[in-house]
Amino acid sequence: MSEAIQVVGLYVRDQDEAHDFYVGKLGFRVHTDQRNGDYRWLTVQHPDQPSFQLGLFRPQPPVHDAATAQALNELVAKGAMPPLVMAVDDCRATYELLCSRGVEFTQEPIARYGNVDANFRDPSGNGWKIIEQGA
Amino acid sequence: MATERSASATPTTKRQDPLLLRRLLRAKDRIDVASHEDWPVRRLAAVSGVSETHFAHMFRQAFGLPPHRYLLTRRIERATALLRDTDHPVTDIAFDTGWNSLGTFGRTFRDVTGESPGAFRERARGAAQGLDRVPACFLSAACRPDLIIAVSEKRRQGRNDKPCGSQAMEPL
Questions:
Q1: Rounded to whole angstroms, how far apart are CA atoms A15 and A19?
Q2: Strand A127-132 relative to strand A115-121: parallel, antiparallel, unpaired?
């Protein structure tokens, strides 16, 4: 497969904090971590999905002016960014594992409509849903 | 009108510290996951780690509506989902979503959505088709009432120009 979605980015308030969360707690791997002065291109990957990178980007000057960067940080912290969904094999097991690593869950696993789902947030405020389908 | 602006404080334009917002979001998340529970300001302020005196103002500034009204929108959202997707009696739904009486629930539901719970249930069942590929909570959120004014105000307006329609389901 040569044509596909390669990178989708999230805004995070602090890239060190995001790295610790996505790599240290969720178990993602670093794909690229390149700096150019104050700018840092950081992407991570789900271990079972090597063709896709999740970018962890900080809204910052000069890409954005300071007021825009501040507004974006506020929006993320208010949970206003779009939903993120991850498929898991066993929602309750993943929930237990991530809880033990200190992930902030906003909804415990609930079985509904043949699925089990739970919600958590990253430290910046991005909201994730994990779904186990056909449970 | 311009002179009144400082008093009513247009909420979206003022800067708020992202770290504070993240803590306010925690209180909003707690309402989301347990909207049937009581959420006095004291409890919400404790979740956010801010003073009781400032909580309601900061919450409103961040999310555009006061916490008690946000709680109300979540309860109505949940009630509409239960009315549409389950066969639970309306009385059970009223108590399950946090109301203390069927009368208050029915009156508030009507004030907010423009229909009685029973009428909404009948209409929604006829309309829902092919939405099963959207994760349930996102679908439910899309049906949340957009309560930009207080319910008492909405009730007053509704008396003046009825019928006020069914804003809750229209966006779908």
A1: 6
A2: antiparallel
A21 contact residues in B (CB cutoff 8 A): none
Cis before residue B89, ω within 30 degrees of 0?
Answer: no
Q: Which pair of tokens denotes residue A30?
A: 């670093």
Give pLDDT tens digits for A59-109. Answer: 998 889 999 999 999 999 999 999 999 999 999 999 999 999 999 999 999
How far apart, in whole angstroms, are the C-alpha atoms of residue B25 and residue B44? 10
pLDDT per residue over B90-140, tens digit each? 999 999 999 999 999 999 999 999 999 999 999 988 776 656 667 777 777
Residue B162, classed as helix, strand or coil, is coil
Residue B133, chain A, CB below 8 Å: the answer is no
Distance from chain centroid for Cα B5: 25
Residue B137, chain A, CB below 8 Å: the answer is yes
Question: Which residues on chain B are in Cβ contact (under 8 Å) with A74?
Answer: 15-16, 18, 21
**Which residues, in sequence order, are CB contacts of B20 under 8 Å at separation 6+?**
B50, B58
Sheet-wide strand order for A39-45: A7-11, A53-57, A39-45, A29-36
Token look-up 């006061």 returns B66
